[in-house]
């Protein structure tokens, strides 16, 4: 990485799951010197923001309308890196990506931070996520998709929508018949935020198009065992046949995103334990990746 490269960064989606953590990571002791300050924070209604606010020299909070190209262009003028942390708002994703192109951004990090849907062999609501990346790449912007499997905080110790309810001592795992239970990669919000900051500081031409991170990887049955070791309370683990579950989800053409998370997990598509970039991302800016056991123990 060039020691002289210090990009101007804009972040959209402060109110989302990764928003504040990512801003904190960009302005952390590990990363703050890598960027030109202030960080630009794009918000629909900055005056209504109830969270912590950084001083003007560190972050500037800008009101934007994703339906108004002129306002977006003003907010992104001279920006080098655009980080999209918006929730499931595909039209806003496209507007932000188009504005990034018009303003000459060198790097676009699209709204991903979940399963690598490029691997899916079935239709899912995640297809719209790929559209934003393809569009930005077709415009010539270096676009880096970051996949992290499951966010720990969404599942542990309880994420019943994913089949995990450790406090009530029950786990339901989608498993292929006659096969070992697949591993699933879990990454904490803080670690994903640090990974985003690490990518943002890199010279764009040296970055890959896709990066996987995996704070920790294990089966759902192992989650139950970790809870048992912590609490000495027995956890019941049940299995759901993958083929039957898949048929049910696809026949109903379900719009419930959780079904596709579970389907991908059962297919083994959420296991990034052998292809993650953790060590590369933390090289030179060391931090400790959080383990599943730490999350379960509340550490």
Short structural summary:
The protein is α/β, with parallel strands linked by helices.
Features:
single chain; 299 residues; alpha/beta; 33% helix; NADP; NAD(P)-bd_dom_sf; NmrA/Isoflavone_reductase-like; NmrA-like domain-containing protein; NmrA-like
Provide mean pLDDT, rounded.
Answer: 95
**What is the helix fraction of residues, given as a range?**
25-40%
Order of helices and strands: EHEEHEHEHEEEHEEEEHEEHEHHHH
Largest sheet: number of strands, sense, barrel closure: 6 strands, parallel
Class per helix and strand makeup: alpha/beta
Number of DSSP-assigned strands: 15
- Shape, principal axes of CA atoms: globular
Distance between the termini: 33 Å
Protein name: NmrA-like domain-containing protein
Keywords: NADP, Oxidoreductase
Domain NmrA-like: 9-260
Pfam families: NmrA (PF05368)
Could you describe the 3D structure shown?
The structure is a single chain. With 299 residues, the chain is an alpha/beta fold. Helices cover 33% and strands 19% of the residues. The protein has eleven helices and 15 strands. The chain has helices spanning 19-26, 69-75, 90-102, 127-138, 152-155, 189-200, 220-231, 242-252, 257-266, 278-282, 292-296, and strands at residues 8-12, 36-43, 59-63, 81-84, 107-109, 142-143, 145-147, 150-151, 158-159, 164-165, 170-175, 184-187, 210-212, 216-218, 236-241. The strands form four sheets. A six-stranded parallel β-sheet has the order 3-2-1-4-5-6, sandwiched between helices. A four-stranded mixed β-sheet has the order 9-10-11-15. Strand 5 (107-109), helix 4 and strand 6 (142-143) form a beta-alpha-beta unit. Helix 3 packs parallel to helix 4. The model has no long low-confidence stretch (mean pLDDT 95). This is NmrA-like domain-containing protein.
């Amino acid at each position: 990485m060039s020691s002289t490269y210090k990009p101007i960064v804009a972040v959209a989606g402060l109110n989302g799951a990764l928003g504040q953590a990512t801003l904190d990571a960009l302005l952390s002791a590990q990363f703050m010197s890598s960027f030109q300050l202030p960080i630009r924070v794009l918000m629909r209604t900055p005056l209504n923001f109830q969270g912590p606010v950084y001083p003007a020299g560190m972050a500037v909070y800008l009101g934007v309308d994703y339906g108004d190209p002129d306002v977006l262009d003003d907010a992104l003028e001279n920006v080098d890196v655009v980080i999209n942390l918006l929730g499931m708002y595909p039209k806003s994703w496209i507007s932000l990506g188009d504005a990034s192109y018009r303003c000459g951004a060198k790097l676009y990090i699209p709204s991903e931070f979940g399963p690598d849907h490029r691997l899916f062999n079935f239709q899912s609501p995640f297809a719209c996520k790929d559209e934003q990346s393809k569009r930005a790449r077709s415009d010539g912007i270096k676009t880096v998709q970051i996949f992290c499997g499951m966010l720990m905080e969404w599942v542990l110790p309880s994420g019943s929508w994913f089949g995990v309810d450790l406090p009530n001592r029950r786990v339901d795992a989608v498993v292929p018949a006659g096969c070992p239970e697949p591993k699933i990669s879990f990454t904490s919000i803080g670690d994903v935020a640090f990974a985003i900051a690490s990518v943002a500081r890199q010279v764009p031409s040296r970055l890959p198009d896709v990066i996987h991170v995996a704070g920790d990887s294990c089966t759902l049955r192992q989650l139950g065992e970790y809870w048992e070791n912590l609490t000495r309370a027995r956890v019941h683990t049940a299995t759901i046949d993958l083929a039957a579950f898949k048929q049910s989800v696809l026949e109903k053409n379900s719009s419930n995103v959780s079904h596709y998370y579970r389907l991908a997990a059962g297919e083994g598509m959420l296991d990034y334990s052998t292809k993650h970039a953790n060590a590369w991302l933390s090289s030179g800016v060391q931090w400790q990746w959080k383990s599943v056991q730490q999350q379960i123990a509340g550490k």
